[in-house]
Amino acid sequence: MTDSAIDTSTTRLFAWWNIPPGPCLKSLPCRCRQVTKQFASEIQKLSEKLLDLLCENLGLEPGYLKSAFAGSNGPTFGTKVSAYPPCPRPDLVDGLRAHTDAGGIILLFQDDQVSGLQLLKDGEWVDVPPIRHAIVVNIGDQLEVITNGRYKSVMHRVLTRPDGNRMSIASFYNPGADAVIFPAPAFVGGAADEEERAEATYPRFVFEDYMNLYVRHKFEAKEPRFEAMKSAIATA
Ligand SMILES: O=C(O)CCC(=O)C(=O)O
Ligand SMILES: [Fe+2]
């Protein structure tokens, strides 16, 4: 049962939106809903703290990234619990195909026993090993755009394993649907001629428009998505 369409090969999912609260959240039994809400509220606070740390790192004023995500109704924020069942032929079946995350910042609790998550670094797939109580922090495409490439979203995937049932809990802190996403002015410029500057600059778009593209091209490289958003502006 999910609030959102999520493409997966073998995963079993339960996903819900915390902001705005989706029907799955409302349908949970009372005690479970309370715990879920408390969990979501803490993870949301942590996401916003991390966004401010990124601002500090980037020399942006505190709150810049949070307000860049806000749109007219605040951010969107969802949580997805996944179970990747054992698979006798991991060579044939993916847990989750390679992709970058579309949104802002993603906080992931992964199984502390069963591995499977990998990220792409310098053309090589690298394991992200399970560490008890550790939270994996992932950067999504929107942060790449707002930082004009100073932070990059990372390609990652989940492999299946023959010998264990892997669980994960991922929380996605994303812009509001109508948030206008664009590179922070502090990061635009540098190139002397205008054409070069336009090429080096990430596009400006409404987050919902990006998501409409992303759902069709999630498991592909991100660069053509950014290019498509640039052309959409040019022809608007
Ligand atoms: O289950 C995981 O460890 C990763 C999930 C993921 O990458 C995603 O949902 O976008
Ligand atoms: Fe992901």
Highlighted features:
5-stranded antiparallel β-sheet; Jelly Rolls; 236 residues; 4-stranded antiparallel β-sheet; single chain; binds 2-oxoglutaric acid; binds fe (ii) ion; alpha+beta; 11 strands; globular
Description:
The protein is α+β, with helices and mostly antiparallel strands and 236 residues long. It has one domain (11-235): Sandwich (Jelly Rolls). It is 33% helix and 25% strand. It has helices at 23-27, 30-58, 64-70, 141-146, 194-200, 207-217, 223-235; strands at residues 12-19, 76-84, 94-99, 105-110, 117-121, 124-127, 136-139, 156-159, 166-174, 180-181, 205-206. It has a five-stranded antiparallel sheet. It has a four-stranded antiparallel sheet with strand order 3-8-5-6, with no helix packed on it. The longest helix has 29 residues, at 30-58. The radius of gyration is 18 Å and the shape is globular. The structure holds 2-oxoglutaric acid and fe (ii) ion.
